[in-house]
Amino acid sequence: MIELVIVLLAAGVAYWQISRSGANQPGMAPLAPSSAKSPQLAQLIEYANRLYGEKKWLSAEKAFLNVLKLDHKNVGAYSHLGIIYSMQKNLPDAIECFEIAARLRPSGSTYQNLGMAYYENKNSVKSAAAFDKSIMFEPSVSRYIGLSKAKKQLSDPNGTIRALEQAAKLEPSERILLLLETAYIEGKRRDEGRAIKDRIAALSKESGGYIPKRAAAQPRPTAARTHSA
């Protein structure tokens, strides 16, 4: 539906492209207005970014839709809209925006955003597939954690463990090791779970404190950077 609305809005409007720009959740890096070929587009992008930064979601949504009137292949605008819709729990529109972004510019970032939206919408198979693609572009801790959560939603304990083992290789912190310990225990691999518990105790002793499981159980994968078309 979003795509149809945008196509209708874009009909008869001149098309411009802007060069690369970044996007993170929730403090997404603004699309650089200086890179837009159209002064009108540059001003609109700057305005949309300001509204987004001020957390004026409804106004930012309208502004980014207006960006798409002028540049209907603007990946950054789709990514911003997807995050806005995700925060509003409007998951169908969020997924559609992220799908378009991933189709226009396949990258680790666009597929990570898509995987997060699929996960929130309980579509575990598509979520895992999207996270796998994001990892193929560039592995990261947040992407492996996202994959582990999708695998857990699929009742795949070994898949969950494999993803968290990779995350622990990238970041052998108490936070990640606690997640891995829990996965080992839930996967009935208790000996490996106890070994991880010993590693956590050693790390805790070095750092002078222990992180409670409830504090480590909710890692916050970030929606990574995207680029406009």
Describe the protein's architecture and organization:
- The chain has helices at residues 2-10, 39-53, 57-70, 75-87, 91-104, 108-120, 124-137, 141-153, 157-170, 174-186, 190-207, 213-216.
- The two termini are 21 Å apart.
- It is mostly helical.
- It has 12 helices and no strands.
On the 0-100 scale, what is the average pLDDT? 81
Question: Approximately how much helix is present in the residues?
Answer: 55-70%
Describe the global form.
elongated
First CA to last CA: what distance? 21 Å
Structural class: mainly alpha
Biggest sheet layout: none
Please give the radius of gyration in angstroms: 20 Å
Strand coverage percent: under 5%
Helical segment tally?
A: 12
Order of helices and strands: HHHHHHHHHHHH
Number of strands: 0
Low-confidence stretches: 3-34, 212-229
Compose a concise summary of this entry.
By secondary structure, the protein is mainly α. The chain is 67% helix and 0% strand.
How is the secondary structure organized here?
Elements lengths: L1 H9 L28 H15 L3 H14 L4 H13 L3 H14 L3 H13 L3 H14 L3 H13 L3 H14 L3 H13 L3 H18 L5 H4 L13
Helix pairs in contact: 1-3, 2-3, 3-4, 4-5, 5-6, 6-7, 6-8, 7-8, 8-9, 9-10, 10-11
Features:
elongated; mainly alpha; 229 residues; disordered C terminus
